[in-house]
Write a structure and sequence with these properties.
The protein is an alpha+beta fold and about 120 residues long. It is about 50% helix and about 25% strand. The chain contains three helices and five strands; from the N terminus they run E-E-E-E-H-H-E-H. The protein has helices at about 45-65, 70-90, 100-115, and strands at about 1-5, 10-15, 20-30, 35-40, 95-100. A hairpin with a 5-residue loop joins strand 3 and strand 4. The longest helix has 22 residues, at about 45-65. It is globular. The chain starts with a strand and ends in a 5-residue tail after the last helix.
Length: about 120
Amino acid sequence: MLIGVSEGQGWRYEVIERRDDYLVRMRDLDTGALEESDSKLFRTAVVALAYADLSAAFDHYAAARIAGEDGADLERALAAQRALYEDISGRLGDEGMSAQMLATLEHGAETANRRRLH
């Protein structure tokens, strides 16, 4: 279930509640396509939401820099959002994990649990 959204300049960061965790995924604002390779999993909703906000702030800042605009205000907003995310993440002990890393670990565990018949 979608529980939160933060929009950057070119990407929308969606927070999805799953059975045991919270997934933050990126969606291209122009095409609506998902970019699954940068998805990240968190144990807590509050850290996932803070990460989505941080990602959107970085997206705005990076777009301004690429366009050659003065990004001083965006840089301050990004620094504040980064500090907030790091504080919440540190307090809750939730640094998140790459969704690809989790899939790799789960696949390895499944393989290790299989019995070989000779």
